[in-house]
Structure prediction request, 587 residues.
Amino acid sequence: MKNRRLSVLAALLIAAMVLAACPQPTPVVETVKETVVVTQVVTQTEEVVVTPTPVPPVQGGVWVEGSSADATILNPILASDSASFDVLGWFFPSLLGQDPFSGAIVPTEMAASWDVSEDGLVWTFHLQDGVMWSDGEQVNADDFKFTYDAIGSDLVETPRKANLDNIESIEVLDPLTIQVTYAEVKCDALNNLGLGWLPSHLYAEDFSDVMDSPLNEEPTVSAGPFIFNEWTRDDNSTVLRNDGYWKGAPNMDGWIYKIVPDPGARLAQLQTGELDLIGVQPEQLTTVQLDANLNLHKFKDDGYSYIGLNQANPANPQAGQDEDGNLVEQDPHPILSDLAVRQAIAHALDYDAIISKVYLGQGFQIASNVLPAVGWAHDPSLQPYAFDTELASQILDDAGWTDSDEDGVRECNGCATAEEGATLTIRLQTNAGNTTREDLGALVQDQLNGIGFDIQFEAIEFGTLVGELLGQTFDMVIIGWTGLGTDPNDDSFWHSKFDTPGSGFNFVSYQNPRIDELLEQAVSVPGCATEERATFYHEIQQIINNDIPYVFVTGSVGNTGYSKKFNGTNPGPWSFYHNVETWSLAQ
Prediction:
């Protein structure tokens, strides 16, 4: 889509947003769930209680979310970044809901209920009736089947191929009944069925237009609370109220996703009312907490920050498996394929200083890939790598990385993977506009260069970074995972079959046959007893800790600053907007 100015309608929305952001008188009576309780004291001993009376919601207003990064594509099966899902999440219905406070899967979306066969292989979902696309077509089982069949099509390049793992068939029993059959028990089966559905009536039956459809940038229909209006690249996306939303039309007029790359500018615009919500960086917490016009939502995020270490040669990306499922020996990265180098990196970083200085205490050190929040699968006995620069230097010396010319940068002198004389030079990248990651990058560069690395650090545009990650053309990256959910299965990050240049999330080209085996066994435990599955995940964590495909920096603590423009906001750790249709403009 070419950049263009906001449409007249979008401009009106922004004007409405500015007006709504003007300071309002402090309300005398608190509105809770649209009901006011008034107690009037008549005498010192007598009270008259007035029966609660419904207060009609106030219509209008626009909510503006600020972000450092723009969306890349508005198709739920092609998107791979959180910015895209922030926007497209308003339009496309999904089979399953998630409790915003516990994270549990609940029947609050298209699946009103479901049945499971005794052997755990056949899942039958009964859909909500009367849910409509905004063009008047019914949302039904055909849309679900089309979406997942599209994921499996050879014509569609998508990082969501893992969502089909172990699915034997998807059948439409009737317009409101879907039957999903698995080849084997898959303990996290429901987690793979939560993607947004495509409107099948707008696509070719053979999926030939999915990759290049104009709907990828301008969705023309919606079955969510808002309808797409306009997307101006690197500036903003605007959406409008969907009056036909099946849960009830929102009270607000619309929602804007505004790109403000500079975090200081985002905070300033939050304070002036130009923005209504931002992710708060650690150094901004005090400012938000002291502003009487703002709220702060703090939570332990289901994610972590890490440094990804590409195991394969970025000049020659290769798939991890061939068409028959056999491992493909990778062209190794000339430096990072050396385990000794990865060990040295892991020991050279001062994690306490990073969490204290960069994250301002808003984080916690982790040793491997399963977060403490998934208590039954997390291995608390596993220790993170200790900060020890002497040990890191000794590991490099022993591996043949020495500074023979004493210029401060080590060279290969009998090392295992690089050409003789090659310097220990590595590119480190992250996304520009995230000052926490930029600060972390500068600190990592300083600490690694202190023991003889030559780290070339750069912060680049987010979409460009995602392209390099999925294309596997990077060396090291500072990035993070979020939305990991309540099940520990993260095979799409580690299994060799998801090492697929251009689309796979195993973009560090990690290969370990034992990990492949354990990941498959962990989701195939008969009965899915957590105590049995935990055994596999404990071993997985140990191996990943040993192999160091990632340097785990910190578990995530989320901080969201938001305005008091609307009543009814009730953010949970798993969803901020779960009840957006009930929000009402504050008076």
